[in-house]
Amino acid sequence: MEQHYKLYRVREMADGDEDFIMALAGAFLEEVPEDAARLKLAVAEKDFYTTYQAAHKMKPTIDLFELGVLDKLIIVQDWGKFEQGDKDVSAELDTVLNAVANASEEIREDFNL
Fold it and tell me: N or C terminus: which one in the chain shows less Cβ crowding within 10 Å?
């Protein structure tokens, strides 16, 4: 449990409400993998606007669950925001996508979702 993500800040925010923690875990699984897939496609297509939107949307949840890749996600976000087509963000993107996949699998197991 909590190898690829951390619940410290989630628990602090929930103030002991286990149902709220479960709801946040469910929301993570509903939104973050879908946003990650959108981000992957947007970067591949050099769709800067969608890259920026998807990364920006993911930031608070990635930060809240402490996946440890917020800095990499910001690099990808800024690639889209500033239309840095000459820059290669594939390594950062892969790191983010792997973290999301690992955390999603672990959250699914930990919360039986």
Answer: N
Write the DSSP symbol of residue 88. -
pTM: 0.96
Q: d(Cα 100, Cα 111) in Å, to the nearest integer? A: 16
pLDDT digit string, tens, across residues 42-66:
999 999 999 999 999 999 999 999 9
Cα distance between residue 51 and residue 11, in whole Å:
30
Three-state SS letters, 1-66: CCCCCCCHHHHHHHCCCHHHHHHHHHHHHHHHHHHHHHHHHHHHCCCHHHHHHHHHHHHHHHHHCC
Nearest alpha-carbon partner for 106 in 53, 40, 18, 29: 29
Tens-digit pLDDT profile for residues 3-31: 999 999 999 999 999 999 999 999 999 99
